[in-house]
Amino acid sequence: MATSRPRSLILSFYGAFVRQLDGWIAVSHLLTLMAEINLDPQAVRSSMSRLKQIGWLAASRRNGAAGYALSSVARAALDAGDERIYGAQRAADLADGWAVVVFSVPEHRRADRHLLRSRLTWLGFGAPAPGVWIAPRRLLDPTRAMLESLGLAGYVDLFHATYTGFGDARSLVARCWDLDGVRAQYAEFIAVHRPVDRAWRQRAGSERDAFADYLAALDRWRGLPFLDPGLPAELLPPGWEGRTASELFARLRERLAGAALEHVRRVVEGPVARESSIHG
Fold first, then answer.
1. What is d(CA 104, CA 106) in angstroms, rounded to the nearest whole number?
2. How many CB atoms lie within 10 A of CB 243?
């Protein structure tokens, strides 16, 4: 498996495996495992350095071996994303209505404005107009909790609303979310990983094969649930691929994740090459 996204793959690797192995891995073991998915050592070192600079990883030594541990910020972010990434995807009920966020942030608090926008996007909101964001009603409580935890509630009015016109609700949704773009990514995921699923049904591969195939699927999948808030089925284009893609990822996870973790565990329990310094 080759990729042009080493940093993304490393984050996927940490989220799926390193969290279950005390949150730390030796550099030599990381390089071994990344080489198995055709990542160049220099690209791995460069990516680790960048992840360290932005506060996601912390360089440390254990028993004389250089390695990287997840920061508390990174662990919290990965933990928060688990439900979206691994949860079963379901469409919202149109009759439940919408969560609506209206906000106004002073110019001198620009950082808060950026944080608010990024967190609303992460939750799955779309914006029909500047300062107005909407999402399915079921996101109302998580949104309230997010605003309160970040101290942003003072900028926001929060509503439970029903759309009554004048335009078509499908057109509104199309303005707020890039459904064509999301659909294309779902279709790509299915096209790439359905043959993998079919192959594993036909024959049993090694734990190393399971590691490579599962990490590839997870890395391609994990961003998609954050682009798709689970809109009501009536408002989606016919033949929406979201559920098919979600079920495909769930099958791959069930079939491969355990064997993949065992492979990683075997590698990290092996000899550690000592390094004179931690790069980056």
1. 7
2. 15
Model confidence pLDDT, tens digit, residues 37-62: 999 999 999 999 999 999 999 999 99
Q: Helices 179-202 and 242-268, interaxial angle, to 10°?
A: 60
Architecture of the domain delimited by 98-161: 2-Layer Sandwich (3.30)
- Two structure tokens written together for 94: 């149109």
Q: With H, G, I as helix, E, B as strand and everything else as coil, classify residue 134.
A: strand
Asked if the model's pLDDT at residue 98 lies above 90, the reply is yes
0.70 exceeded by pTM: yes
In the chain, what is the greatest distance between 2 CA atoms, to the nearest angstrom? 67
The secondary structure of the chain in percent helix, strand, coil, rounded to multiples of 5, reads 60, 15, 25
- Listed in order, strand segments (DSSP E) in the chain are 24-26, 57-62, 65-70, 98-103, 126-129, 132-136, 156-161
Domain ranges across the chain: 98-161, 178-267
